[in-house]
Task: structure prediction
Amino acid sequence: MACGTRPLAVVACLFTAVQFALVVPGSGIGWDEAVYVSQVSPYVPAAFFSAPRARGITFLAAPAAALSQDPTALRIWFALLSGAALFGSFRLWLAILRPAVVVSAAGLFASLWITLLYGSQAMPNLWVAYGALAAVACLLLPASRGTHAGLAAAMAVVALMRPSDALWLALPLAAAALASRAPGRLVALTGGVALGALPWVVEAHLRYGGLTARLHRAGEIQGGFAGQFAFGAQLRALSGRTLCRPCSDVPLNHPELALWWLGLPVAVAAGIAVARGRRRPLVLATAAAASVSVPYLFLIGYAAPRFLLPAYALLALPAAQALVHAARTWRRPALAALAVALAGHLAVQYAVLDRAADRYRLTRTAYARTAQELHGHGVRPPCTVSGHEAVRVAYALGCSSRQVGGHDGSIGAGTLQAMACLRPVVLLTSDGAPPPAYARTWRPHGLSPLPGLRSLHAYLPPGCADRAATPRAASTG
Result:
C-alpha cells in the first residue's frame, strides 16, 4: 500500500461518518435535487428539465432512486459514494505531492460545511470537484495510456455534470499540455470534454432547436452571462445559505463565518511560495481553480457556496502545503496559535453545517405535512402540481409538476385546466398572492405554511375538489 493511502482512507471514512451522523438522518430533498432525481425515479414523474441543467448527476442518482422515493436512501447512497470518490481523487496526488500534504488537503476540503452538506446530495458540483482533482493529477503524472485514459475519463465526468465547468477547467490544462509539448494529453483532454458534453449537445438539438438556442436560453435563466462581480454575494452565502438570489438584501450579520474564505488566498500563496521543488503542480492546481471560478465570480449576479466546490478542492492542495510547512518549521508558540485557528475554523464549519442540516430536516417535515394535507383534499397520483414550490410538493406527493410561464414554463393555462378533468390538479400560492386569472374560480384551501412563508393556499378546480369525498376515483383518474 502506497505511503499515505491509509491516512487518506481514514479521512474518507471520517468524512462519510460525519455525514451519517450530522446530515443524513431525517434530511429532506432540495428543489434542484427533486428535479434531478425525478428524471430517473420510477415513483415520481419527471419534473421540467431546464436548459442550463446537465444529466450527469441523474446517472449517479439512478441506483438509489430506483430503490425508494425516500430521501434517506438517496442520502446514504451519496454519502458512501462521495467518501469513496474523495479517497480516489486525492489518492492520485500521492504520486505528485508529499503524503502529508495530500492527506491534509483532503482533510481541509472534507471539513468544509459545504463539502459535508453536499456529499450526500444529488447535486453535480462536488462531482465536478472530484473530476477536476483527478484531471489535474492525470495531466501532471508521467504520460502513459493509463494517465491519458484517466484524464479523458475525468474530463468526461466533469462535462457530464456541468459542461460549462469542463470548458473553463480545460483552458489552463490545455495551456499546460501545449507548454509541455504533449499532444497525447491534449487529445485526451479535448476528447474527454467532447465525450462528456455530447449528451447535452444532442439534447440541445432534440429539445431546444440547436446548441445556440440552448445556450441562449440557459443564459436567460441564469440572468445573463455579463460582467458581474459576485464576490460579495459569495461572502454572504457562506453563512449557510444554499442559494443567494438576489444577495443585495442579505445582511452580513456574521462576518466571522467568512474569515476562512478571506484567508484562503493567503494560505494558497504561502503554500506555493514554500513548495520549492513541487511548485509546478500547485501552480497548475491554483490556475485550474481560478479558471473554473470565473463564471461564478464574474459572470453571474447570484451565489451558491456549492458553485465554488471545485475551486476549494484544488486550492486545498497549496493551502495544505502551507500548513505542513508551518508544522515542520514553526516554533511551539506559533504552532499553538495555528492549532487554535484550525480548531476555530472547524468549530465554525460545524456550526454552519448544523444549522443547514436542521433546515433540511425541517423541510422534510414541512413537505410531508403539505402532502398529507393535500391528500385530504383528494390530491393523489396521478396528479399535477403547479405554482409556488410545485417541484418539491409534487415530489412528496408522487405527482408531476408543471408551470404556466416563467423559466420552467412547460404547460399552457388551457391545457392545465383541461387536465383537471382527467386527474387532480392543484395550484399553490404563498403569502396572500392571488391566483392567476385562469384559476380565479378554483376553490381555495388553506395549508400549513412551508418554511420561510407566512401562508400557503391550494387552489383546486371544482372537478378535483369534488373528488375529496371519493378518493378512490381520484387515485384512478
Confidence is low (pLDDT under 50) at residues 464-477. The longest strand covers residues 425-430.
